[in-house]
Structures are given as C-alpha cells and as structure tokens.
Amino acid sequence: MARVLPLLIVAAATLLLTSIKSSTALKMASPGCRETCGNLTIPYPFGIGPGCYYKQGFDVSCEDNRTFMPNSSSRIQVYNISLLGGQIQVSTLIASKCNYTNGESTDGWVSVFTTPFFTLSSKANKLTAVGCNTVAFLGGYNKRRAQTGCVSLCLDKESVDFSGQCSGMGCCQTAIAPNLGSLNITFDKSFNNYVVNEFNPCSYAFVAEQDWFRFEASYLQDKKLTDKYKDGVPSVFDWVAGNQPCDEAVKNISSYACISRNSQCFNSPNVTGYLCSCSDGFEGNPYLADGCQDIDECQHPLQYPCYGICSNTVGGYSCSCAAGTRSKDPKTSVCSPDTASERAKLTKLLIGFLLPLISRRRYG
C-alpha cells in the first residue's frame, strides 16, 4: 500500500547542538503555553496548541507523552531537536515491496512533503536500501527535480555481505541531493524479489541518519526489518526561522524572528535562511521577548574559569586577584603573591623592629 506523509515539520529546541535540557530559570515556551511533552522540551517558535507556535508547520501535538508533527495521524514523531543547530530528528517510514513464493506481491512507496521552512538534511542522512536484486530511488525537489539511487545485488545467501556494512550485497547506501523540500522513495520494478524470494521476499528503502543503520543479514527475511522498526527510522531535517539571509530578514521587523533583546541573527550553515541565537554572555530563547537572560558566569567555573575573585557583569564577567597577589590573566593562570608587595611588607617590619633599637642606643 502506498503511504503519503504530510510533513508539517515542527521542532522543539535546545541550547546545545544535541538534546535540549529544561531549565527552571529559563522559560522556553511562549507565555501560557505547555513547555514539555514527555522528556522533550517544546520551546517557541514551536508549540503545542493555537497561539503557541510561530507559523504553520511549527505546530506539534503531544499524545501519550510523545511529540508528533502535527499529530499522530502523520506517524512522524519528534525524537530530538536543536535550536542553535537548526535541525530536528524525526521518524520517517520505510518503503517496502515483496514478492512471495505463493505468487502474492506488494509494492509500496513513501512520500514526505515539508513546509517552506524545512528541508531534508543532505549532510546528516543517506538513502539506504535493503534487499537482493533491489534498486531503490529517492526523488525530490530543490527548485528543480533531483533524484539518486543505489543498487543491491545478491543472487544467493552465500553472496550476502555479513560484515554489517552496506556494500551493495544485501544493503546499499548513497548520498542525497541538498535542500530537498519533498521526497519520494520508490523501487525499480524491473528488479524484483521473485528470483531470490526463497531467502529474501522483500526489499526495503528509507532515508535515515547516515551513521545510524548497521546491516544484519536477518533483515533479508520476511518483515524482520519493518517488525523491528514499526515506528519508522530516525531522519534529520534542517529548519530555519525564515528563508532570507540575515541582512534581508532584519529589514522586515514584522516577520523578523530574533525578537529578544540581546539576541542575534546568523545564516544557517546548512540551508538558505537564518536562525537566531542569544548574544555572547546570554542564554535562553532568542525567539521570545526577553528570552535571552544574562549568564552568571561565576556560577559555572568550569565553563568560565577564574583563579581569583569572580564578579558577574551584564553579558560577561570580570576576574581579579586579591590584594597582595597578581597574575598576568587571572582567567587563565593562578594569582601568586606580589613580590614587590611582600618586599614592602618586610621592609616595614624591619624598620619597625630596628627603630626602637637605634633610639635606645642613641639615647641610652
């Protein structure tokens, strides 16, 4: 059966490039909106419910402590999100086709359509196909039509590569075109499983993170792969707050997304468009008014070292040595006793000791 998945991409966000961690001090969701779903934080510009997200496509639902885009009917679950990196990890389904020894056959494909702010990441994903006598294609659009594919051939069990690698004998992988706003996974019908259906009745194809999948020969057996990954496989999509570069986006204040004071715009390193971040010395959500708050660097000595007396400042911190000590830079080296100061103290001590003796000898 064919499966068409509307991908209204939505994300939660993180201050790091990997997983997001909730902070009791920093509010990440729009005021009055739900901030978490299960263990996942959902910060603005993404949100749950009307009025809680930036634009259509950034809306998500929370069902049984799982986050979906836009809801569970899409079968696209949000696993992980990156605010600074402008990426979201989601589940996408596996395309399959089967030719059984009893003559029955199935022929399936998977299609995904994104909103204007999301594209399939060419850097993070690969097209993977599993099967023998299998040719799979990934087609899509990035202002023009693009297509790629890979071939996996193995005429008997002995010719299957058991190393776990996708070498083209049981499994193949290939890079994908950049900036795909839609994708369609299909098979070449002139290659089918009739000739190998005694040990490999089905072929599979999917887009997944390039380092995630490790091939197992057992996946060639009927439905072993789809039974294991019923909810789909992890894929990465790039997202942006707007499709213009920063110098153009900032001219339109009504739609400019970096609204927090102490925030800044930067062009996405992955796709055409821009993202927002808090300025140096600030943390939080740059997409919210007053979302970027000052970091008290003195509370985080491992990240912001100070070998003297630490003082927090707006957007930074200062570090000084105590009286009588000195350092070339107390942020990088320890404060040591000031030699000149110690010599002065010793001189005063000696003078204080010798003066009474001299006076006693002179007037004694």
From TrEMBL:
Domain EGF-like calcium-binding: 294-336
Record GO cellular component, one term: membrane
Ranges of residues in domain EGF-like: 245-293, 297-336
Signal peptide extent: 1-25
Localization in the cell: Membrane
Membrane topology, as annotated: Single-pass membrane protein
Database matches in InterPro entries: EGF, EGF-like_Ca-bd_dom, EGF-type_Asp/Asn_hydroxyl_site, EGF_Ca-bd_CS, NOTCH1_EGF-like, WAK_GUB
Keyword check for Disulfide bond: yes
Pfam family, one: GUB_WAK_bind
CDD domains: EGF_CA
Membrane in keyword set: no
Annotated Gene3D superfamilies: Laminin
GO molecular function: calcium ion binding; polysaccharide binding
Keywords: Disulfide bond, EGF-like domain, Signal
PANTHER family found in the cross-reference section: OSJNBA0016N04.9 PROTEIN
Protein name: EGF-like domain-containing protein
